[in-house]
Amino acid sequence: MVYVREASVRNPWWQRGVVYQVYPRSFADSNGDGVGDLPGITGRLGYLRWLGVEAVWISPFYPSPMADFGYDVSDYTGVHPVFGTLEDFDDLVAEAHRLGLKVIVDYVPNHTSEEHPWFVESRSSRRNPKRDWYIWRDPKADGAPPNNWLATFGGGAWEWDEETEQYYYHAYLKEQPDLNWRNPEVRGAMYDVLRFWLDRGADGFRVDALRQLVKDERFRDNPPNPDHRPGDSPYDALLPVYSTDRPEVHGIVREMRGVLDEYGEDRLLIGELYLPIERLVAYYGEDGSGVQLPTNMHLISTPWKAREIAALIEAYEAALPPGGWPNWVLGNHDRSRVASRVGPGQARVAAMLLLTLRGTPTLYYGDELGMRDVEIPPHRVRDPWEKNVPGIGLGRDPERTPMQWDGSPNAGFCPSGVEPWLPPADDSPVVNVECQREAPDSLLNLYRRLLSLRRAEPALSSGDYALVAATDEVLAYQRQHEGRRFIVVLNLGPREPCLKMPGLRGRVALGTLLERQGAEVVKEVTLRGNEGLVIEAR
Ligand code: GLC
Description:
Layout: E1 2-3, H1 13-16, E2 19-22, H2 38-43, H3 45-51, E3 55-58, H4 86-98, E4 102-107, H5 117-124, E5 136-137, E6 158-161, E7 166-169, H6 184-199, E8 204-207, H7 249-261, E9 268-271, H8 277-280, E10 293-294, H9 298-301, H10 306-319, E11 327-329, H11 338-342, H12 344-356, E12 360-364, H13 384-388, H14 433-438, H15 443-456, H16 458-461, E13 464-470, E14 474-481, E15 484-491, E16 498-511, E17 520-526, E18 532-537
Helix pairs in contact: 6-7, 12-15
Bound molecules: alpha-D-glucopyranose.
Residues 68, 71, 108, 172, 208-209, 272, 333-334 line the site of alpha-D-glucopyranose (GLC).
């Protein structure tokens, strides 16, 4: 099949450009307290501009007790002092816009911190006007929780409140009580939060945990998951059919989108969604009234093999609704880093895949350097998930270590002599921005070249997609737009396969090893191990 962008659809910035995710604790520490901050990010926007991305999405920087490192918000309209001030946010936006970059704020609607004043009130008495802002239920006759639902980060999802003798529901930590989105007052207050940041110049939001927002009206038990194996996350022992992805969520998404549309057509909603493809695409909403980008996380979990990836692309493209714009994610602050998952050789191929597929790519900070998961010694573990469910690889600290700016002891993230909140990687003396900027054949320069080619050639961002071949080792596809035609050929293994393409004449526009540019390609191409090529066809 050929997958095409409908000509009638607008081509806004978020379809043309690449989103770069910053985990603010780990990007750049401007005041030497070992934790990254907003002025640190502002100081590095020039780097993002040089790299060639379009937008920066910043994980939460709100006031928070940091039980889940900022995803437990105690004030939706402020900045935690560790990250700076609201003025620092305004400066960041002003500088980003001056450089032509968009700013995407992380919006955490599903739950607050237990220290949020709304929850403090809600828990204070059953008669408090905010009682119904959260999800309170009576115990069963024997005192047990109202149903069998589990919390993502381990244990049951219901927490008993001694004072008021009811349970409250939390999809994540008990310090993160879920808001009751069926309550119109909650919806109104949370839409005002969107307006607050839009008024300050935010260009869009990444909506956290979107599938969790609405729960079954009858609070039915979740069924067991027959595929659950020892060593899997305990949360996955049940299929969360009644606690997540409920049909009523789409009405709420439409309302959120309505708030953004009050600010013109160009503000963006990205929905964080771990869902099978057929469920995921529902979040585009009827006639495109949902989020513009429901995150497609499937490249993270699909086996790194040519046929599997080809089948994923095909299944995803075929499932998109009319006008639905694709997107691709290779890594984020919750999943093992791509260079660790696929290895350093394939990290280059992964870069080429991400930046030549149809749709909007999201790039996680440091992946452009090949940063790897860092082993965290037990005494330095910070992530509550690892603390609650230790030893089976659920912890997320390994992919959240300091950005590697240079070869100095703390990788240029914070001054030497300060202990960064997570240890820098051992390879930071050689894997860092400063070294890789100078090395013409570095992964960083490959990313930069790919980003620049992608900007120059709409065929690679908005053009049609068609599969050319998927063999044991090679994935090849065509991208085409207004007479410009490219064939992307990716070798997903270490051998040197030869792919025959009888009709092909062209030249290499870019290779992952950054050494075959301009080479003629006629009828066949032999790839080196772990090599990918973008071939401009004639
Ligand atoms: C999302 C975030 C994750 C966070 C969780 C709870 O999945 O990406 O980091 O812990 O929501 O807010």
